[in-house]
Amino acid sequence: MKVAVIGGGIVGVSIAYHLSQAGISDIVLFEREKMLGMGVTQYCSGGVRSQFTTSINVQFSKESIGDFRSLAQTIGYQQCGYLILDAGSDSLPRVKMQNDLGVASEYLSVDKLKQRFPFISAEGIKSASFFGEDGIADPASLIEHWHKQAVKNGVKFEFEASVEKLVEESGRVSGVSVGGNVGRYEVVALAAGIQSVELAKTIGIDIPILKRRKYVFMVEGLKIKHPLIMEIPTGWYIKPEGEDALIGMSGWEEKQDYEKKDESLQETLAATVKRIPQAENVHLKKTLSSMSDETPDKHAIIDNSHPGLIIATGFSGHGFMHSPATGRIVASLVKGEKPAIDISALALKRKLNKELVAI
Ligand SMILES: Cc1cc2nc3c(=O)[nH]c(=O)nc-3n(C[C@H](O)[C@H](O)[C@H](O)COP(=O)(O)OP(=O)(O)OC[C@H]3O[C@@H](n4cnc5c(N)ncnc54)[C@H](O)[C@@H]3O)c2cc1C
């Protein structure tokens, strides 16, 4: 079977690798850059967690975690734990749902939070949750690993090969156009990240991805050993990065290419010092800025409703941690098999349910 994968980010490379592992022999991956991982993936903080607010995301984490464990050395996977602080809602329903699905996350009252993490200021926090098996890994190493294995399995990687449009005949996607040349494929997997929006438009399909800019700041001088800490609903987080730390927030909607850098730095630093007063004297080391890949309900879109086309995009800040499950699920769809997880909640045409917006 001839399959084209568009996009050499973590999602496209996982799809190409898992297709080849599933016995599909004629696979080409098109990447418009000179190398892999140059889209949103290069800004990824590498967080890997099972603590989500919706069961579909917990299932994707459970389906992916075995890959992180078995590749731990190759991809620098460390279980440093994730602490999630709730400033607006109660953590208990989320923890119960996770426990029911076999994830042993813990509910922390404010008193317990203060005991376990005395460096945190709990002002305004209602409760929290912690799971010591959540952690971090290196996205570039995972791409490299899958790339090598996929090449061994016979996958062709075409670089500097920008797909201009999808080709459709009689209502079925039958190929892609690259440099004016049309290649024919039985299945096209669209995994071009944010640029999937433009490519899908070439056959009249709308993909809802918000234009949201994210800043991540690397800071030095915080001499505290801490897990990855996130706060709901602000989206503030801090991630250990060797001796340093990465700090960020949920991002800002952008109308044009307006950048909000100074305000972002001040807001993110202020949020950090509010939660960790000892962060008052940290120094900025590096700033990273990227568009994020968020859908309105912050869930990925994995959809095969259009004949000949599988869309896998809009991973909403979870694309790295869910890439192993996504690759296997897309491989099952290509082979016409039932995927390991019911993905109807991720359909392109789903209704927006505000209560099911993922965190
Ligand atoms: C600041 C930040 C922090 C994050 N932290 C985490 C985290 O801790 N954990 C986590 O799991 N996720 C995280 N994410 C999200 C994660 O990085 C993304 O979900 C993931 O990288 C998306 O991968 P992708 O392959 O879908 O997209 P991309 O990485 O954007 O890949 C798409 C690829 O398609 C190529 N392409 C585009 N158009 C074309 C075309 N026409 N022809 C050929 N090729 C094309 C691009 O060049 C690109 O290489 C974070 C994101 C950001 C912005």
3D architecture notes:
With 359 residues, the chain is α+β, with helices and mostly antiparallel strands. Helices cover 27% and strands 26% of the residues. The strands form four sheets. Strands 4, 5, 6, 13, 14, 15, 16, 17 and 18 form a nine-stranded mixed sheet that branches. Strands 8-2-1-12-20-19 form a six-stranded mixed sheet. It has a three-stranded antiparallel sheet with strand order 9-10-11, with no helix packed on it. The mean pLDDT is 94. Residues 6-12, 30-33, 38-41, 43-47, 162-163, 191-193, 195, 199, 214, 216, 248, 290, 292-293, 313, 315, 317-321 line the site of flavin-adenine dinucleotide. Flavin-adenine dinucleotide is lined by residues 6-12, 30-33, 38-41, 43-47, 162-163, 191-193, 195, 199, 214, 216, 248, 290, 292-293, 313, 315, 317-321.
For the structure shown, list the relevant keywords:
binds flavin-adenine dinucleotide, 2 domains, globular, 9-stranded mixed beta sheet, alpha+beta, 6-stranded mixed beta sheet, FAD/NAD(P)-binding domain, D-Amino Acid Oxidase, Chain A, domain 2, 9 helices, 359 residues
Layout of helices and strands:
Elements: E1 2-6, H1 10-21, E2 26-30, E3 47-48, H2 55-70, H3 72-75, E4 82-86, H4 92-100, E5 106-108, H5 110-116, E6 127-131, E7 135-136, H6 139-152, E8 156-158, E9 163-169, E10 172-178, E11 181-184, E12 187-190, H7 196-201, E13 212-220, E14 228-232, E15 237-241, E16 244-248, E17 252-253, H8 261-275, E18 283-291, E19 301-303, E20 309-313, H9 323-335
Helix pairs in contact: 1-6, 1-9, 2-9
Bound molecules: flavin-adenine dinucleotide (FAD).
Flavin-adenine dinucleotide is lined by residues 6-12, 30-33, 38-41, 43-47, 162-163, 191-193, 195, 199, 214, 216, 248, 290, 292-293, 313, 315, 317-321.
